[in-house]
Amino acid sequence: MMRFYVLFTVALYSFASAAPSIQGIQSLIARRLPRHASNFSFSIENATDASTNNTTSAPLDVFVVSNGQNGTIHIAGNSGIALTTGLRWYLTTYCHVDIYWFLEPTLDLASPPLPKVNSTYYGSSIVPWRYHFNTVTFSYTSAFWNWDDWQVQLDWMALRGINLPLAWNGYEQILVEVFLEAGFTQAEISSFLSGPAFQAWNRFANIQGSWNGVLPSSWLQGQFELNKQIVTRMVELGMTPVLPCFTGFVPQAIARLAPNASFVNGSAWEDFPTQYTNVTFLEPNDPLFTKFQKSFISKQQAAYGNVTHIYTLDQYNENNPFSGDLGYLRNVTTNTYASLKAADPNAVWMLQGWLFFSSQTFWTDARVEAYLSGVSNDSMIVLDLFSETQPQWQRTNNYYGKPWIWCELHDYGGNMGLYGQVQNVTVNPIEALANKSSSMIGMGLTMEGEEGNEIMYDLLLDQAWSAKAIDTDHYFHDWVSSRYGPTKVPQAVYQAWDIMRQTVYNNTNLTLAQGVTKSILELAPNTTGLLNRTGHHPTTITYNPATLVDAWTIFYKAANSTSSLWTNGAYTFDLTDITRQVLANAFYPLYTTFVTASNATSSSHNITLAQSTGQQMLALLTDLDVILAASNNSHFSLSAWYNSAQAWASVNTTDSTYSIGANETTSQIASYYEYNALNQITLWGPTGQINDYASKQWAGLVGGYYRDRWQLFINFTLNSTTSATGANPGLSSALLALGEQFDMSQVVAGKQNLVLKDVLADVTKRWPGVFA
Ligand SMILES: *[C@@H]1O[C@H](CO)[C@@H](O)[C@H](O)[C@H]1NC(C)=O
Ligand SMILES: *[C@@H]1O[C@H](CO)[C@@H](O)[C@H](O)[C@H]1NC(C)=O
Ligand SMILES: *[C@@H]1O[C@H](CO)[C@@H](O)[C@H](O)[C@H]1NC(C)=O
Ligand SMILES: *[C@@H]1O[C@H](CO)[C@@H](O)[C@H](O)[C@H]1NC(C)=O
Ligand SMILES: *[C@@H]1O[C@H](CO)[C@@H](O)[C@H](O)[C@H]1NC(C)=O
Ligand SMILES: *[C@@H]1O[C@H](CO)[C@@H](O)[C@H](O)[C@H]1NC(C)=O
Ligand SMILES: *[C@@H]1O[C@H](CO)[C@@H](O)[C@H](O)[C@H]1NC(C)=O
Ligand SMILES: *[C@@H]1O[C@H](CO)[C@@H](O)[C@H](O)[C@H]1NC(C)=O
Ligand SMILES: *[C@@H]1O[C@H](CO)[C@@H](O)[C@H](O)[C@H]1NC(C)=O
Ligand SMILES: *[C@@H]1O[C@H](CO)[C@@H](O)[C@H](O)[C@H]1NC(C)=O
Ligand SMILES: *[C@@H]1O[C@H](CO)[C@@H](O)[C@H](O)[C@H]1NC(C)=O
Ligand SMILES: *[C@@H]1O[C@H](CO)[C@@H](O)[C@H](O)[C@H]1NC(C)=O
Fold first, then answer.
1. Number of folded domains in the chain?
2. Is-contact 620 557, C-beta < 8 A?
3. What's the CATH number where 101 sits?
4. Does one domain contain both 41 and 106?
5. How far is the CA of 424 from the centre of ligand 11 (A)?
6. pLDDT, tens digit, 9 for 90 and up, residues 502-514
7. Tell me, what CATH number does 574's domain have?
8. Ligand 3: does its nearest atom lie under 6 Å from the Cβ of 70?
9. Residues with CB under 6 A from ligand 10
10. Residues 386-413: pLDDT tens digits?
11. For ligand 8, is residue 322 a contact (CB within 6 Å)?
């Protein structure tokens, strides 16, 4: 195992100050397993000397679980994260409890006395680093999270062995201080910052500014205070946070402030008007760049302590460089890294490698090599961002020697569809690591949104602790035991998951789909262009839909014999999710029938059929909405997103150095947040620039927005003003207007007191052809 990390030298200064300690796991136990606080004992053993910054000393994490003294379960490890990973191994293997996204943690349900282990178990990671987050996850998933949400997330991460997480919250507070110090005015800075639901793309400099309002200072401060808690907890748990730094992107007023500085206009992103894109980039060879970098990093160190040397820094994520000249590209990285080193002598630059895939025409092999060659191999880590589908490490010869991390992306925009590539996330990383010249140092998750399909994410994180490709048959079985545990799980539930493992979760044809599927019901209605989409937002169903109905039937009927499943949060969650997918799939044939029957030029033209099918489509959306509401789970609900955004409006500002929005009332701020939250999941841009990119099958959105759009489309189409090619300017603008007018507050109160069991009995009776 050792050979995996001694093959090459990597300057990863993991432990800046804190020596590994058992304090993190002890507090985790106090939070999540209070009943069992005295039933565990812990020790740190064989830890690497924390004061060393030896390049090869980023060790593999190892743990040992054994029967300890006084009847305790003893967990030994060489790091804090080794301990928490060992704890999860014990809790899932012996007690069948865990923490899952969107569910109440079941850890404390482990019934006393805790079982002794049959034999001492030795666990070891196969890579030193397990990474988590995509910069955009901070907008698609956690934009409005509070500290409670974060605490659960961080414990989830610690138990799954993650030791290298991004920590983006509060970035803007520090950036604003740097800009104020430099002499920008508040208004100049404010015109640069984007809204609370769009900060990720401002951080990437795809966009600047905020449509429909300005980012208030209370947001900046609230997020900054939150990040102090987040970073402190990460460090306590034994993680090395990856923190932001100055990227080079500045307010346009740099032209006023420093007219002689060297800066360029960045490229345009998507179809955004220039006002909101073409972000100004201060060239890294300008002395101001280093000045801003030093200011930023010293303020950040003062805020969080010297907790890391690893910085996330992306200048060309879906932005193309000013020049493709090889010398220019090399200079950009050389000078950018020099600024980091001036601020932190041990700095390591972490780069999201997405650009080399998404802008492949620009990023020829020669340009990638020139760009990467500006930084030494021990000072940069590249995230191979979409390894399961579009890996770039082969074509770049292991990023020309830079250490890199194998990442599973899986989901775009937090879209919701059952989907997985079980083979690619088990076999491929093992092969990548076995490669003789491999400079792979980690495995991790870079999903755009944490959206469900959790088994696919758990699988990759567990693969990081298994030297052989995981056997998914056993894996799914064990996963099911913990997911619905600690009580015994009926065979039918295992059976349903096994069907899904071989179908829904085993896409092997990447021509059909490369990530989580989207349903056509979430798209702006059209007579053409919705079906058979491929790529990142595929609408193609990659398995036989009838097989999913089989799995659904078996899963649903499991509760007939085991009625306690109706009070099992994981069961009702998954039942909702599978039902959601079955209904979404059933929308397709209705749509096809409608389009054919309503087409006056078709030989199958049948207006009566079109009318009745149109009604069925609307009825299906209504029923889907009710089921999502009856799940009683935030993951299926627009109101949860809405309420979390609203809650941030009550944060008070105490710092008056930056006072943008300080005069606004709580309700003005609340409506700005509401607009932001809604715009991201619907129009995504002031006038629908990337409409429906982040669509969701949420109660309230399906019944209150998508259904209205389909109603409009059906009416238009039946009045036969739509051409066969779908072109219909009247309909397009009416759909856009609907998006602009949709009032989230009208639908969030939604349906209440629904009982999933009753709702399902009712709905399945109404759709005998679907649930047969
Ligand atoms: C770092 O550690 C490795 C392995 O323990 C050792 O071979 C090497 O000499 C050390 N390098 C330095 C600079 O201390
Ligand atoms: C370790 O860090 C110190 C500064 O803290 C630096 O001077 C030294 O060169 C580093 N050693 C290695 C092997 O990189
Ligand atoms: C075991 O329990 C005894 C009595 O409570 C205590 O004195 C001793 O320190 C315990 N040993 C360990 C290893 O916790
Ligand atoms: C620490 O090293 C000793 C001696 O090699 C070994 O017995 C023990 O299991 C190791 N502990 C851990 C947590 O790996
Ligand atoms: C431990 O041993 C018992 C008795 O042989 C067995 O039933 C159980 O499955 C074993 N547990 C594990 C996790 O191996
Ligand atoms: C914005 O960027 C695009 C290239 O992406 C360029 O064609 C356009 O001229 C830029 N606009 C401005 C105002 O710089
Ligand atoms: C962090 O490191 C810097 C040097 O890089 C040093 O000036 C500062 O005092 C350190 N801060 C803390 C809190 O240790
Ligand atoms: C790269 O930077 C060097 C020195 O900083 C400068 O002399 C050279 O002209 C630059 N090359 C390009 C292509 O920008
Ligand atoms: C996935 O599909 C491939 C190709 O059809 C097949 O070889 C493989 O056994 C399947 N794996 C699972 C887990 O069903
Ligand atoms: C993913 O796995 C499939 C087989 O399941 C294989 O055909 C494909 O090449 C793999 N993709 C990548 C990027 O390795
Ligand atoms: C994958 O799907 C495409 C598009 O339907 C099809 O042309 C191709 O034959 C499929 N590949 C395999 C290996 O089945
Ligand atoms: C339907 O899609 C076509 C092709 O993308 C497009 O030209 C047309 O404007 C769309 N129609 C509506 C009503 O949006």
1. 3
2. no
3. 3.30.379.10
4. yes
5. 17
6. 999 999 999 999 9
7. 1.20.120.670
8. yes
9. 389, 391, 421, 423-424, 428, 508, 510
10. 999 999 999 999 999 999 999 999 999 9
11. no
